[in-house]
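INTERNAL AUDIT FORM
Audit reference: QA-55
Scope: verify that the stored structure record matches its stored sequence.
Auditor: D.O.
Record contents follow.
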Amino acid sequence: MNRIKGCTKIIYFYLDQIEKNIKNIEKYYASFFMVEDIFVNDGSGKTKLNKYLFGKQNNLITNDILMMNSMLDEALETIRKSINELLLVYPNFGEEYIKNFFFEDVRLLENVKGIKDNDHKVLSKFLSLKNRLYNYKYYVDMLDTKTLNNLINTLSVEDSVNNVILFEIIDSFGLQLSRLKTVLSQFENIEISQEKVNDFGFLIPCLELHKRKVFSFVHRKIRHKIFLSYEIDDKIKKSRTLMIPYLENMIYSLVKQSCLDLVKRELQGVKFHKNINISIKSIKRKIYIIVKNNGVERNNTVQLFNQEEENRYILDTLNLANIMNMQLDIRSIEQEGMEYTLIL
């Protein structure tokens, strides 16, 4: 257990530093709601957004996010090295096995034959810490303002003075501010919490933010306009205890995977409206969270579980689903795209 103590000590050091970065970002966000600063006169008596202010604050936020991700990467590297040191004493384990974390946790635990009970517990704890750190990466990404700032920079002259568009942008920053408070509370305790919920309405702010962010999705410096819709069955009224941070993380990962599916289809030269639909429904006492897109079809869905970086979102989802005793189902629908389903 000394390995765990040494590892967690380093992780807590980084988390303390990250908390400070988040509090910096909270100050930067405050400037997005100072009416006297965020709007300027366009010279003809009309009001438009102060692009300079938004750009300046976005750069500050981006720098803090880069630092936070760098610290989380350092913490993950500490865990990776610790796992390798732990398992090198086992003959069937190759040093080259863990060069990254693109694998299914359950498979790793099964592959190490003859592992001692204590080492098995330590390995399980390391994997738990790894999943929590990736969960933190999800929360850090939720603070990123680049997508909204890119949208502001691409506004036409007419849109720049359109009050409906302007206040929708401000509302989007408001959604992110509400997420910031959630992010800060998560970094205060590394242990994952469980909460009792009576319906799935708590996911609406998260889904709404995904909707607005993917509308200006950027992949390899190219902007893609993706339309996301969602519906939640309001008949779901059964009390459940859930790891909400992990549930949100899984939906985020499947949305990201869907964005990549859509981009891949577009790269094949197909012109189409890129759509993602998220539906949460109850069927025979089970909850189905379905993320469907009309992107590229993957006939061999088994390959999505291969230990490769391009499958990172699927593998992240699978590991969290196993923790929550959920099932991940993937289907390729002919001439329709891909469907990813979490079953609770």
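Auditor finding: record pair retrieved intact. The longest strand covers residues 274-283.
Action required: none
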